[in-house]
Amino acid sequence: MLLATYLTTPVRFLFADAGLAGRLLDWAQTVLRMTVEAVRKPAGQRGFAVIPRRWAVERTLAWLTAHRRLARDYERHTAVSEAMIRWAAINTMTRRLARGRPATRQQRRVLQPS
What we know:
Layout: H1 2-8, E1 13-17, H2 23-32, E2 35-39, H3 52-65, H4 78-99
Parallel strand pairs: 1-2
């Protein structure tokens, strides 16, 4: 029951790349009634630096593209692409829920001669 409630709860706040700012922000606020925050790099930044919220956006996209069908844009219709993204997100959530423990990084194996 809790999972069903979670999946049907509408998204009200999301982060987007600064390149999507402009009319998208206005449209999302008026039509979808959601708040979109454009993640921008700090003023005066030179070179590479991890931006916390942008990292969350990039990480999510990386999780989605780990699913083979989303690695390339093969679909002709946007509805099919949206369904594939939902499938990938549900698959990721299901695997995490089934794991039952926090994620851990894989350790490098050191091969020792026998």
